[in-house]
Amino acid sequence: MIRFTLVILALAILTLVLLPFQLIAIAFDLDWQRRIPRLYHRILCMLAGVRIRQVGQRTSARPVLILANHASWLDICIITATTPVVFVAKSEVARWPLFGTLAKLQRTVFVDRDRRQQTGEATAQIAGRLLGGEAVVLFAEGTSSDGIRVLPFKSALVGSVHQALGASHGHDSIAVQPLSLAYTRFDGLPVGRALRERVAWYGDADLIPHFIRVLASGATDVTLSWGDAIALNAETDRKQVTRDAEAAVRRMTAAALRAPTWAIESPSEGELTPKTV
Fold first, then answer.
1. I need a labelling partner for 9 at 20 to 30 A (CA). Which of 97, 119, 168, 267 fits?
2. Residue 197's pLDDT is what?
3. What's the DSSP call for residue 82?
4. CA distance 147 to 167
5. Is the pLDDT of residue 277 over 50?
6. Is residue 15 pLDDT above 50, yes or no?
7. Contact, 70 vs 60, CB < 8 A?
């Protein structure tokens, strides 16, 4: 508990220091609004003892829609620590104490998947972010899993790419890249079914106890695996692209969990060229 208290104190100071700069950056549409969240989450991961190993490379193409699996609130911190992105999240996240505020400051797109009209509005917002040159992360399962399995990907919001292309005069295609997150060790032990609830946040698990447990452990190892980027154009079948991304994430997650060999790598800029389908 002493460790948790120290981490929370450090995070509180960090938040108070960076908050005014992020508010100014958003108000004046400065590039800081992308850099500050990355700095914030890199420091958060360092304080929480999160070690990130990257396999493959993220595409340098912009805009890009990243289709990822989802196991924990920690996913957001880890992805942001490696690359400047905006997220798509369920609408109730906006109402969460602290987490909702941080999500808004990172310019998250909120969507109510149970209301078809809201999904259409969210698709339009995602398209707008893509046309603005953003890297947008979509947790395509639509919910969080236990971190061992990958749930079926949903294709509805992938349609934002077609909407963006229809509104654009400068893009013939937009990159779509699969991303796998696999938690391989927690508190020094390999993550298997016995430990999955310690790192994965899913089902009816309470957020605050899980948050405390992760920060207090001081040691979480995760592998980020970047799949091949695809250049999706107006004729591309979004459902097929979604199925292909799901299959790629499933393979990469299984591979990372089978071979959690640790050689910690610093995040680096990717240079993959999207493949057109």
1. 267
2. 79
3. H
4. 37
5. no
6. yes
7. no
Which string of DSSP letters, residue by residue, matches 110-137? Answer: EE-TT-HHHHHHHHHHHHHHHHTT-EEE
Which one-letter amino acid corresponds to residue 143? T
Please tell me the number of Cα atoms within 13 Å of 248 on its side-chain side: 23
Structure tokens at 25: 């950056």
Cα gap 25→17, rounded to integer Å: 14
The first and second tokens of residue 144, run together, are 């969080």
Dihedral of CA 41/50/103/87: which sign?
positive
* First-residue to last-residue Cα distance in the chain: 51
What backbone phi and psi angles, to 5 degrees, belong to 67? Answer: -105, 115
Report the candidate in 112, 88, 56 with the shortest Cα–Cα distance to residue 225. Answer: 56
Q: Which of 59, 75, 92, 81 is nearest to 232 (CA)?
A: 59
Two structure tokens written together for 265: 């790598």
Which of 242, 275, 257 minimizes the C-alpha distance to 67?
242
Q: Please, are residues 69 and 79 in contact by the beta-carbon 8 Å criterion?
A: no
Locate the domains of the chain by residue range.
50-264+271-276
Rounded mean pLDDT, 96-110: 91
Q: Which H or E run contains 32?
A: helix 32-48
CA 77, CA 92: separation in Å to the nearest integer? 18
Global pTM reads 0.90
- Paired with 185 in beta bridges are 190, 221
Hey, is 263 helix, strand or coil? coil
Token pair 């979480």 is at which residue?
220
Beta strands in the chain (DSSP E): 50-55, 64-68, 86-90, 109-111, 135-139, 173-186, 189-190, 220-226, 230-233, 275-276
- Find out whether the peptide bond into 260 is cis, omega within 30 degrees of 0: no
